[in-house]
Amino acid sequence: MRLNDSNNSSLVIDRLFDQVAVDADGMVVACVYCDFHAENEQSATGLLGVLLKQVISGLEPIPEEVQRAFENSKGGVGGRRLLLSDILEMFAKSSSHLHRVFICIDALDEFPAKHRPELWGSLQQIVRECPNIRLFLTGRRHIQGEVQKYFPGTAEMLPVSPRDHDIGLYLRMRMSRDSESHAMDKKLEADILRTIPEMISGTYVFS
Amino acid sequence: MREYGSGRYAVPSSAPPKFIDYHTLTIFRRTDFNNKTHALDEMNPTAGQTPGISITSNCGNVRNSNNNVWNNCDISITDKKPAVLEWLSPLDSRKRHYAIGQDRVLGVGDWLLDTNEFTEWNQGGDGIAKPILFGYGDPGVGKTYLRYGCRLPLKSAYEAKR
Questions:
Q1: Per-residue confidence of chain A (207 residues) as pLDDT tens digits?
Q2: Residues contacting A22, CB < 8 A, separation 6+
């Protein structure tokens, strides 16, 4: 097992769609994981559609504006495709029914670069129109410049690297799953827990 | 749509059967996105598991074999939510969500929840200066898992604050 990007991707391809937690006071968490290999959420419309779906699935009843848009869309032959502007409008209206909306978008570097400006623009609009929104974004270092460009002064930058504590937890978990446990003794275990964290500089590579 | 159960209640028989003297309430158990059916008390609305309700009122013109008078008007309350959600996005990754949940190592990334940056982002009020938190790092440092790990503590932190 390699706990790296490709592993993350294969494990969590579009994993958090529809992931919602709501409390009685109206808090929603909506998440999406960007993945090179997935197709549907590789546009701003697709990605925000997935997030909006999660926000709305936490609302009871569905906001009137959304119901109306749904009814109207059925008018045309085969229904009209949802436009980005429709989604953004419904996003703002749905969010206004909630106390707090947490949006998490993971691995933005895997979202196609050519569509990112449209996504950034949409997120800017959401943040502008919804004061109760919080965005948690992750990505590789090179995305940092884009975040600073589109959200000057409004985005907190948090460097993420594995702490020794994290590495220790991970190693212990792997050792506990070792099928040849008889080969392990206290000394070997201690050596592993000491040596591997020393070897790691910023990246998990456990084969 | 499958019928789950139904009940009937009546006004006392001494009451003149002028208007409504029976309601038949039928609760339908419906399939969710995965075409599974669920008992009413096991339904999870966020997964599209919601009952439908049909109310038939005895108040009108047509007599059935028991000499009850029924109108021809069924009031059906059906839930459009699953259709609306499907319209917004066809994607549903419930199974993959479970996969990553099983792979995540408990405790890894907890340090992030203790940072001032996270606390401010999580608990600050409307219109805070920095509503965006960007976690960046090299490939494979575990950003995905950290973010996943944030999900539940977000809620508990919020509740603790209240």
A1: 233 332 332 222 222 233 334 444 677 778 787 876 665 568 899 899 989 998 898 788 889 999 988 888 875 455 667 899 999 999 999 999 888 888 888 889 889 999 999 999 999 999 999 999 999 888 888 899 999 999 999 999 988 776 666 677 777 777 777 777 777 788 888 887 777 777 665 444 332
A2: A28, A58, A59, B46
Cross-chain Cβ contact B134/A158 below 8 Å? yes
Is the ipTM reported for this complex over the cut 0.85? no
Q: Which of B43, B63, B59 has its CA nearest to residue B51?
A: B43
> Cα–Cα distances in Å, from B115 out to A89, A126, A152, B12, B31?
34, 26, 21, 66, 43
Question: What is the pTM for the complete model shown?
Answer: 0.64
**Per the CB < 8 Å rule, is B121 touching A156?**
yes
- Contact yes or no for B99 and A131 at CB 8 A: no
